[in-house]
Amino acid sequence: MTLSTPPREDSSPAVAPDLTESGGHGPGRRSLLSLALAGTATAAAGVLAGPLATASADGPGRGHGNGRRDEIPGLDKVDVESPQPFPRAVLEATYPSDREVDYVPLLSGFLTLQRDHQDVLDHNLDLTLEINREATAEEEAAAIVDEYGDMSVTMGNALGERLGAIYQEAVAAGRLPRTTALIHKDGGRAQSESTNPSKEFFDYDRPFIVAPDEYVPRDKEGGDAYSSTSGSYPSGHTNQAYWQGTLLATLLPELAPQILARTAESGHYRIVMAMHYPLDVIGGRMMGQAAMAKRWADEEFRTLLLQARAELYAVLQADCGEDLLRFLAKDEAWMTSDDARRIYRERLTYGFDRVGAAEIPMDVPRIAASLLLTSHPSLTEAQRLQVLELTAIDSGYPLDLSVHSISSWQRIDLCAAMSARVTTRGDGSVHLVGAK
User: Fold this and answer.
1) What is the pLDDT of residues 30-45, one digit of tens each?
2) What element of type H or E holds 360?
3) 198 contact partners, CB below 8 Å, separation of at least 6
4) Would the CA dihedral through 99, 303, 411, 156 be positive or negative?
5) What is the largest distance, in Å, between two alpha-carbon atoms of the chain?
6) Which of 370, 400, 404 is nearest to 387 (CA)?
7) Per-domain residue ranges for the chain?
8) Superfamily assignment of 3-435 in CATH?
9) CA separation (Å) from 321 to 121, 203, 290, 307, 410?
10) Is residue 311 within a helix (H) or strand (E), and if so which, with residue range?
C-alpha cells in the first residue's frame, strides 16, 4: 500500500496560548464542556498543538531508516569504560519545556462522554471488569511488578531476551547515568507533569470503588495498591509509563515497536488490577506522549536527550560485545514488530464504537512531529507531520476531538509512525511504502 499527502507549510506558529500554561484550568467545567460540544477550538486547539519557541524543523542527522551509527550525534564521545553523568548544573538548569501545561483541554473529550454517552461509560466499566476477572496469573504478576517498580527498568524486557538483560544490568551498575537521569521514575529530569490536576477536574471514581464487590483484587501480599482514593481519569501510572516508554523508544528507535507495545502493556495492567478503566489508560497515553513531545521540541532540552541516546547506544553496543544491530538481529525478540504494531493499535481504542463522525481529516498536533526526530531524522517537520497523519487511526472514537476541529492526540499511532518506511517525492510529499 502506498499513501501520500501534500506537504504542509513549514511556518512556525507562536507558542500555544494561555491554556497551555498551568495556573488554573481557565474556563470552568461547564464552560469547557460547552466549548467542546459546540466545536469551539479556542480553548483546546493550542494545548500542545504548536511547538515551543525553540523547536526546529529539521532533525539530527541524515538518511531514512533506524539505527545507522552515523545518524547518532555524539556516539564517538561516549566513554563506554566509564560513562559520565550530566554535570549537576545541566540537570538543575531551567528549560523552556519545564513550563507546566494544563492538560485538561487535551483530555476534555471525556466531558462529552459524561454528558451524552452514558452507554460508553457503562461499557468502560464492563470492559474493565471483564479484563480484570479474566486476567491470567502471568498478567497479574506482571501488573504487580509495574505497579511498584520503575517502569523504565521493568519494560526493559521489550529490548529482547539478551539485550533486555544487558540494559537492566547496565542501569543497575550505573553504566547509563545520563539515560537514567532523564528517564528514572523518581526525579527523572524528562518526566511528565502530574495527572492530579486533571484527576481533580474530571473527578471520576476508580472502578474498584464504583464496583467494590465485582472486581478481583490483584495485589502483592501486604501491598497498598487499593489505598488510592484519587480520581480515575486519566491514569497516572499510564501517563508515567508513556512518558518513560516513549522516551526509551525515541532513544532506541531500532526497537520502537517492541518498546511501545510493552508500554501499552503497562497501561493495560492498570485495567488488569481494576485500578483504572480503558478510557483512563487512553487518556494517560495521550498525556504522556504529549509531555514527551514537549521535551523533544525544546531545542535546549533536546541536547540532553541526544546525549542520552548516544550513551544508551554506545554502552549497549559495548556490553553486548559486537555491532548492536547485528546483535539485535540474533537476539530473541520480546515480540515481533508486526505483533507489536497490532497490539499497540488495538489499545488505541480498546474496541470502543465510534461516538463521532468517521473520516474527518487528521489534524496532527504540531509538536508531535518532534517524536519522530530519531526514527525519521532526514524528514522535515512538515514531512514528519505527514507520517503521523498517514499512520493515524480514523476519527470518531471516544476522547477524539477531531469533530470539534481540534488537534487529536487520541488518534496518533506512534508505533506505526516510528516504524513506517517512507519515501518522498520531488514535491516533498511523503509516501508510506510499508513498515521497517
Assistant:
1) 445 444 444 333 334 3
2) none
3) 103, 104, 107, 231, 233, 234, 283, 287
4) negative
5) 63
6) 370
7) 3-435
8) Phosphatidic acid phosphatase type 2/haloperoxidase (1.20.144.10)
9) 51, 51, 36, 21, 40
10) helix 299-320
- Determine contact, residues 9/385, Cβ cutoff 8 Å: no
Q: What one-letter code names the amino acid at 324?
A: L
Take residue 313 and report the three cell numbers written for it. 547506544
- 421 CB burial (10 A radius; 0-12, 13-18, 19+): middle
Residues 6+ apart with CB under 8 A from 329: none
Distance of CA 354 to the CA centre of its chain: 22
Beta carbons of 266 and 245 less than 8 angstroms apart: yes
Cα→Cα distances 217→48, 121, 236, 331, 405, Å = 37, 21, 19, 36, 41
- Are 61 and 67 in contact, with CB atoms under 8 Å apart? no
When pLDDT is cut at 50, 70 and 90, the band that residue 67 belongs to is very low
pTM of the complete model: 0.88
